[in-house]
Amino acid sequence: MVQPLLGGRDAGTPGETPPALLILIGIVVNNGIVLVYHIHQLRERGVERTTAILDAARDRLRPILMTTLTTILGLLPLAFGQNRVADVLYYPLARCVIGGLAASTVLTLLLVPVLYTLIEDGWGMVGRVWSNGPRALTPSGTATAPRRS
Length: 149
What we know:
Elements: H1 18-44, H2 49-80, E1 84-85, E2 88-89, H3 91-132
C-alpha cells in the first residue's frame, strides 16, 4: 500500500532493520525517561499526580517532538534516495526509523502517562494488601467469610 508512495521500491530485507531498531529503541526510551523524570520532579514539589502528569506531558511535548522531527527530517534523504555503501542500501533502515518514531512518539505521549498511573495504583494496592491482608481489597474494609460447600 505504501510502496507506490515510496517510488515502487521494496522494503528491503529483514537483516537491514536491526540497526534501525537499536536507533529507534534509544530515542523512544530517552523520550519516555524525559517524560517520567519530569513527572517525578513535579510530584516531589507536591503537585497532585493527575496535574503532574498533564503538566509534564505539556512541558515535554516540545522537546519530544523536536527530537522526533529532527531525526525524521534528517533521515528523509536517506529514505527516498538510492544511497549505497559497499552495495548495501540504507533506505530500509531510514524507513524503519521514520515509521517507528512516528508511531512511538504518539504512544509515548499517550501510553506512558497511562502506564505510570496503572503502575502507581498497582503498587498502592500491593502495599495495602501487604500491610493489611486481603481485607484491604474490599471497599468497606470488612472481609466476608469464604463459603464452604
